[in-house]
């Protein structure tokens, strides 16, 4: 798994997914804004339907699903690897962004439809709670600790927070409220959207899922690179300190002072120069 | 596991009884919160009576954070954690024991708060059994979730600020369901109140199960 993460193949896969995500998003925008007709009741407001449910789907199911699964796999001794930790953290970060987007797009739709930006319905409140929960996860992640300790803590936090996800999705049925029931995932699993609108919405789901996968891959790469840079910086500092100490060490026995000083200088330059270019290469 | 849980719970409760931190800090804090709510909502008895169930549960939630922090502070002494791990006690037992000890404290807090809202806010509970069942289920859920997150943030320098951020959103369902159930108990609407137990019950069960399963890996962190 982690070997795959470093191969050039992965980078080209990321690029292909990125291009596909861009194309699918562009197609959704075109279909959603120009091709599909306005709805009978909601008028042009219905166009948010091509964005809001897909974004919510990515946030609630894809992102936090991946986060929970990778946290579980990290905690399970047989599959314990920092790969899962990094993947889970990346998924949570992307998930938090998409949850925030879900709330924003929902709010934009709610204002003209319900007349208010925010209502205290079950779904809204529990989605907001979910956002705060995973913000807590990110806060926990910022706390300095060794990678293993941090990974274990975060994995537990993610799993516990994930327990909230079913509450979110079933809350509509638990608490009878103002919010409409699920459009696609309603209990009967029957589609209530028709024709070109259904296709556009379907495409929206594909587009947002692709965007999610792309962001996840990129975020994972940033995470590994950041770790590698951290290690490099330590190495560089260590070798610089070493180089500083070297001439003093050779002076002590009483050898010709000028010679050692000259010999010491290039060594110091080489020691700090080589890893520096290495770090720059990793950045690229 | 159960025997270990009993041992740990007895140890924690004994420490609390001797140190009197719960008695002199957590309980007065809960009462203080009630009094402050009274100030915030004005002296009008109608508004206070309507808000009482929510205020009660909010005070319980804040006390849960305090009790959990306290429960983890007991284990923060030098080598205490290692001692607990070396003793060969089942981590699930440690979790259940600590949760039970926190639950005992929460029961004390709730008895006091219950008396508080009756005296200060002039609340008359019609359906006692509903309020009682809701409280028991909520207490189990709160202490399980609290101890789990307490263990998660224990030993961190930022734990005082991190723990409320982590634990309060998690226990929000308890706040919602608890206050609704209590409102129903106050007004005597048994049927609608009982349905909220369907949230409190599973919440308690889920967090107990998660804690039993995950406390082991958390203890490894040291």
Keywords:
heterodimer, A: 284 residues, mainly alpha, Four Helix Bundle (Hemerythrin (Met), subunit A), 2 domains, 9 helices, 0% strand, elongated, disordered C terminus, B: 222 residues, 86% helix
Write the SSE topology.
The complex is a heterodimer of chains A (284) and B (222).
Chain A: H1 2-6, H2 8-35, H3 52-75, H4 82-114, H5 122-142, H6 147-162, H7 164-174, H8 195-251, H9 257-283
Chain B: H1 2-19, H2 21-41, H3 45-74, H4 80-86, H5 91-120, H6 128-153, H7 159-170, H8 172-187, H9 190-220
Helix pairs in contact in B: 1-5, 2-3, 2-5, 3-5, 3-6, 3-7, 3-8, 5-6, 5-9, 6-7, 6-8, 6-9, 8-9
Shape of chain A: elongated
Q: If you average the pLDDT of chain B, what whole number results?
A: 85
Topology, number of strands of chain B: 0
Overall outline of chain B? globular
Task: Please give the count of helices of chain A.
Answer: 9
Terminal residue distance of chain B: 21 Å
Q: Any idea of the CATH class of the largest domain in chain A?
A: Mainly Alpha
Description:
The complex is a heterodimer of chains A (284) and B (222). Chain A has helices spanning 2-6, 8-35, 52-75, 82-114, 122-142, 147-162, 164-174, 195-251, 257-283. The longest helix of chain A is centred in the last third of the chain and has 57 residues, at 195-251. Chain A is elongated. The model of chain A is unreliable at 185-191 and 251-284 (pLDDT under 50). Chain A has 9 helices and no strands. Chain B has 222 residues and is mostly helical. The relative contact order of chain B is 0.16. The A-B interface holds A 75, 129, 132-133, 135-136, 139-140, 143, 145, 149, 152-153, 155-157, 159-161, 163-164, 167, 174 and B 145, 148-149, 152-153, 156-158, 162, 165-166, 169-170, 172-173, 198-199, 206-207, 210, 214, 217-218, 220-222.
